[in-house]
Design brief:
The structure is a single chain. Helix 7 links the parallel strand 3 and strand 4 (about 135-140). The chain has one domain (about 1-250): Alpha-Beta Barrel (TIM Barrel). Helix content is about 40%, strand content about 10%. The chain is an alpha/beta fold. It has an 8-stranded parallel β-barrel, surrounded by 7 helices. The protein has helices spanning about 1-5, 10-15, 30-40, 50-60, 70-75, 85-100, 120-130, 145-155, 170-175, 190-205, 215-225, 245-250, 265-280; strands at about 45, 65, 105-110, 135-140, 160-165, 205-210, 230, 240-245. The structure holds 3-methyl-2-oxobutanoic acid. 3-methyl-2-oxobutanoic acid binds near residues 68, 108 and 244.
Length: about 300
């Protein structure tokens, strides 16, 4: 668990002691994530939506796989996360859990699967563990969700909070806008976000996602809380970082300001698909090497135009 136990050892200390392969490292648990704060480590979290990518990200040593409701936008082609259903989230969580060996799997509660009442939230969160194979859930909201977080945490389902730019509040925010730039107590104001952070921690969350807020506000929250913060568009001062997988891989058409393309898979996929179209069109795929052959010789097939 090199990433989340501590900052890397000095070079000399690491000489001759290569890191063990990713899946030989111990399973990441909720207590491990909580311990990060005191140990100066950095948590890595990425979204995942299927078993193939979950296995790759897990092998790369990513600590937390978040089955985010962002799948509504990057997988389902929706304009927002609002229409995503609980059944859809659980289906994708099950896929991710099958591909994971070491990482902690966190399921994201979709819009209106937890806001109706704390009892509804407990039932929805429970489905992520029972049916999806998740080990924790995430939900959006601060002060207003404190009782809900408490209810879920009380039945020993670990909860990750999420405040700042909360995509399920897109209509209240009037778009995906940076929050916490103004002073005051209205939703999205700096002092209100500080209250939200305190409320999420007091309610029993084990970690907190900070999305789309100024870096100095994220630093203030990170210094104020005993639980680790995980930032997205919140600067480097958080205890960890999270990105949407499609942004990291360069699969999205546009990359948000806060994200970095660590690869350009959009170009690669285009190149591969164009190559396939060209080779099939020209009759060069499949080649004879890419064919199965009969075990006993058979007569040459009659070619069109061949005489008999
Ligand atoms: O749904 C999601 O992917 C998220 C992350 C961006 C934190 O909530």
């Amino acid at each position: 668990m090199a990433r989340i136990t501590a900052a890397p050892a000095p070079r000399s200390a690491r000489k001759g002691s290569p890191r063990p392969p990713a899946d030989a490292r111990p399973k990441v648990t909720v207590p491990d994530i909580l311990r990060v704060k005191g140990q100066g480590g950095r948590i890595t979290m990425l979204t995942a939506y299927d078993a193939t990518f979950a296995a790759i990200l897990d092998a790369a040593g990513v600590d937390i796989l978040l089955v985010g409701d962002s799948l509504g936008m990057v997988v389902q082609g929706l304009e927002s996360t609002i229409p995503v259903t609980l059944d859809e989230m659980i289906y994708h969580t099950r896929c991710v859990a099958r591909g994971r060996r070491r990482a902690l799997v966190v399921g994201d509660l979709p819009f209106l699967s937890y806001q109706v009442s704390p009892a509804q939230a407990v039932a929805s969160a429970g489905r992520f563990l029972k049916e999806g194979g998740a080990e924790a859930v995430k939900l959006e909201g601060g002060v207003a969700m404190a009782r809900t977080i408490e209810a879920i945490a009380t039945v020993d389902i670990p909860v990750m909070g999420h405040i700042g730019l909360t995509p399920q509040s897109v209509h209240r925010m009037g778009g995906y806008k940076v929050q916490g730039r103004t002073h005051g107590q209205r939703a999205g104001d700096r002092e209100r976000i500080l209250d939200d952070a305190r409320a999420v921690e007091a309610a029993g969350a084990f970690a907190l996602v900070l999305e789309g807020i100024p870096r100095d506000l994220a630093e203030e929250i990170t210094a104020m809380l005993a639980i680790p913060t995980i930032g997205i568009g919140a600067g480097p001062g958080c205890d960890g970082q999270v990105l949407v997988l499609h942004d990291l891989l360069g699969l999205s058409e546009r990359t948000p300001k806060f994200a970095r393309r660590f690869a350009d898979l959009r170009t690669e996929v285009l190149r591969a698909a164009r190559g396939y179209v060209a080779e099939v069109g020209a009759g060069r795929f499949p080649s004879d090497d890419e064919c199965y052959h009969s075990l006993v010789p058979v007569a040459e097939p009659a070619r069109s135009g061949a005489r008999g």
